[in-house]
């Protein structure tokens, strides 16, 4: 079906999972090709059928299908070419969300790249997301040129400069908010028309729109670790030599954040469930660490 028909159908789905259904987490992979950490993810998913769904948006001329016994087999959605920093990136994200929303059991939706890995076992990730009262979309006011400086006055009055936000592309949202995103016909055209490089739509659309649509239902942080400490327009890339148990532990428990469950609000020592950006060469080291750290339970 066309993108318009897909979004129309996804906009009409229920905003909550019926109580008789077992809630699932939709893992949405936005990739340039294959899944280099497929073996690691297959360990992560093993034994948890019925609690997750997988969707892949890849280059139309991407790699061949994985083996039939893989959770990634035939999980690629109809995809179109994507250009970094362009509206086509946002189109791909909305395409993934819309496809995932058609499964009435999907309650949480997480966007991942081919360079992402899980930091915990599946039960930990599942409980963390399903038990949260909030979505996880990084959204903040950045007064610098790379933040407010990207705002175009042509967006006014639909989006004002005071409402302009920036954040990470890698989001996690609950079902009601996901429906709101694919249903958006007010803000999306404005961003598509007026947010062009050096304004990058994937860094501003969701942070701004989520702050407007559901300010009280967002944790204002991402659950995907990214290292920007080295500066530049792209985060640090982890090669094989960089991977160690110490690095993994720092990603898993090296910070504090607020976690709001459906029952209470607590301070959590684990703020990140996933991490990027790893080179494919790191797979062997990651598997060795997973084997050594039995409590990660990736087997």
UniProtKB/TrEMBL annotation:
<dbReference type="Pfam" id="PF02485">
    <property type="entry name" value="Branch"/>
</dbReference>
<dbReference type="GO" id="GO:0016020">
    <property type="term" value="C:membrane"/>
</dbReference>
<keyword id="KW-0808">Transferase</keyword>
<keyword id="KW-0325">Glycoprotein</keyword>
<dbReference type="GO" id="GO:0016757">
    <property type="term" value="F:glycosyltransferase activity"/>
</dbReference>
<dbReference type="InterPro" id="IPR003406">
    <property type="entry name" value="Glyco_trans_14"/>
</dbReference>
<keyword id="KW-0328">Glycosyltransferase</keyword>
<dbReference type="InterPro" id="IPR044174">
    <property type="entry name" value="BC10-like"/>
</dbReference>
<keyword id="KW-0472">Membrane</keyword>
<protein>
    <submittedName>
        <fullName>Core-2/I-Branching enzyme</fullName>
    </submittedName>
</protein>
């Amino acid at each position: 079906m066309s993108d318009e028909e897909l979004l129309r159908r996804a906009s009409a789905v229920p905003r909550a999972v019926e109580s008789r259904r077992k809630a699932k987490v939709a893992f949405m992979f936005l990739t340039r090709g294959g899944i280099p950490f497929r073996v690691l993810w297959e360990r992560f998913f093993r034994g948890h059928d019925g609690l997750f769904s997988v969707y892949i948006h890849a280059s139309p001329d991407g790699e061949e299908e994985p083996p039939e016994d893989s959770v990634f087999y035939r999980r690629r959605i109809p995809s179109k070419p994507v250009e970094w920093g362009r509206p086509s990136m946002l189109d791909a994200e909305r395409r993934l969300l819309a496809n995932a929303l058609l499964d009435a059991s999907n309650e949480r939706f997480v966007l991942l790249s081919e360079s992402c890995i899980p930091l915990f076992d599946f039960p930990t990730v599942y409980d963390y997301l399903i038990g949260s009262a909030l979505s996880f979309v990084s959204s903040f006011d950045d007064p610098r040129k790379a933040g407010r400086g990207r705002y175009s006055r042509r967006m006014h009055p639909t989006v004002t400069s005071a409402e302009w936000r920036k954040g990470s592309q890698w989001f996690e949202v609950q079902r009601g908010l996901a429906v709101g995103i694919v249903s958006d016909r007010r803000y999306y055209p404005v961003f598509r028309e007026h947010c062009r490089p050096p304004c990058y739509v994937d860094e501003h659309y969701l942070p701004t729109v989520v702050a407007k649509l559901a300010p009280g239902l967002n944790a204002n942080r991402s659950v995907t670790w990214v290292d920007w400490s080295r500066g530049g327009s792209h985060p640090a890339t982890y090669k094989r030599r960089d991977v160690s148990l110490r690095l993994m532990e720092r990603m898993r428990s090296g910070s504090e954040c607020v976690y709001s469950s459906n029952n209470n609000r607590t301070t959590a020592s684990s703020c990140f469930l996933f991490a990027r950006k790893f080179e494919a060469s790191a797979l062997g080291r990651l598997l060795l660490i997973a084997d050594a750290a039995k409590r990660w339970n990736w087997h």
